[in-house]
């Protein structure tokens, strides 16, 4: 799987399942994530998009690599999406940055006090998150925004290690969409939290408490409809609905 000729990753790392557990801090993990070439289809797609570009961004240099998490290494809240957008985070190199979905998310996070400003353009715009970190089960932009189950599973160790490193401070995980919800459940179950049986079902404002198995605090798992244009344009997810669930996450995380 790792024998991939990548134009944009000069020093590829090995398989995520072997490399991710060796990292000792979030910064080190982020540095390894951007060097991943484990999924040939995703490598080819993310770099093709970076070469061809969208007309509106033709003058820009696309990131075209895996996208690391964004936010402080001592976050109490982890927001879990799906994967980078082809002309969003795959262009800017920062989660949920550069597309309309991200505009909705960051605006809502600003409104509830989790972000330092209401709008984002890219790294260097001064955006800071307060007590929250944004991550994803799949770190490369997938064709049609649909990673395969094998790609999701190959990428899983990155998120697993990220959440494990956040363990001292992490109190809430907010999954945006059913994909994020289903992807994060086995990760949490394999770490220090016990997922209830039967497994909790996804839904907007879904809430499950996962008991800790290491003697530490329990974890709250929340669900929200994804901030996709399909949901926000149709009114399935309104700004008020998103603010409401973010307020709940913030309160449960002790960030109020």
TrEMBL record:
Keyword terms: 4Fe-4S, DNA damage, DNA repair, Hydrolase, Iron, Iron-sulfur, Metal-binding
Gene3D superfamilies: Uracil-DNA glycosylase-like domain
BP GO annotations: base-excision repair
Superkingdom of origin: Bacteria
GO MF annotations in UniProt: 4 iron, 4 sulfur cluster binding; DNA-deoxyinosine glycosylase activity; metal ion binding; uracil DNA N-glycosylase activity
Residues of the Uracil-DNA glycosylase-like domain: 68-246
InterPro entries named in the record: UDG_Type-4/5, UdgB-like, Uracil-DNA_glycosylase-like, Uracil-DNA_glycosylase-like_sf
Similarity section: Belongs to the uracil-DNA glycosylase (UDG) superfamily. Type 5 (UDGb) family.
Name by which UniProt lists this protein: Type-5 uracil-DNA glycosylase
Organism of this sequence: Saccharopolyspora montiporae
Origin organism lineage: Bacteria, Bacillati, Actinomycetota, Actinomycetes, Pseudonocardiales
């Amino acid at each position: 799987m790792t024998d991939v000729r990548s134009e944009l990753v000069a020093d590829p790392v090995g398989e995520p399942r072997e490399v991710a557990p060796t990292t000792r801090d979030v910064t080190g993990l982020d540095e390894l994530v951007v060097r991943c070439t484990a999924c040939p289809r995703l490598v080819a797609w993310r770099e093709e998009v970076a070469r061809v570009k969208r007309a509106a961004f033709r003058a820009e240099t696309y990131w075209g690599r895996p996208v690391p998490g964004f936010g402080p290494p001592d976050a109490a809240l982890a927001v879990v999406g799906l994967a980078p957008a082809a002309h969003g985070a795959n262009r800017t190199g920062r989660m949920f940055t550069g597309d309309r979905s991200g505009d909705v998310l960051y605006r809502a996070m600003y409104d509830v006090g989790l972000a330092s400003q209401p709008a984002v353009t890219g790294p260097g715009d001064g955006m800071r998150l307060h007590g929250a970190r944004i991550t994803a089960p799949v770190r490369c932009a997938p064709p049609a925004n649909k990673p395969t189950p094998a790609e999701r599973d190959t990428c899983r160790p990155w998120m697993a290690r990220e959440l494990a490193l956040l363990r001292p401070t992490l109190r809430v995980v907010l999954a945006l969409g059913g994909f994020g919800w289903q992807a994060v459940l086995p990760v949490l179950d394999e770490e220090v939290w016990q997922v209830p049986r039967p497994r909790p079902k996804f839904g907007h404002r879904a809430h499950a408490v996962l008991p800790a198995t290491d003697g530490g605090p329990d974890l709250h798992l929340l669900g929200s409809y994804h901030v996709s244009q399909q949901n926000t344009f149709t009114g399935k997810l309104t700004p008020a609905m998103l603010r409401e669930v973010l307020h709940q996450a913030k309160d449960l995380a002790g960030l109020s």
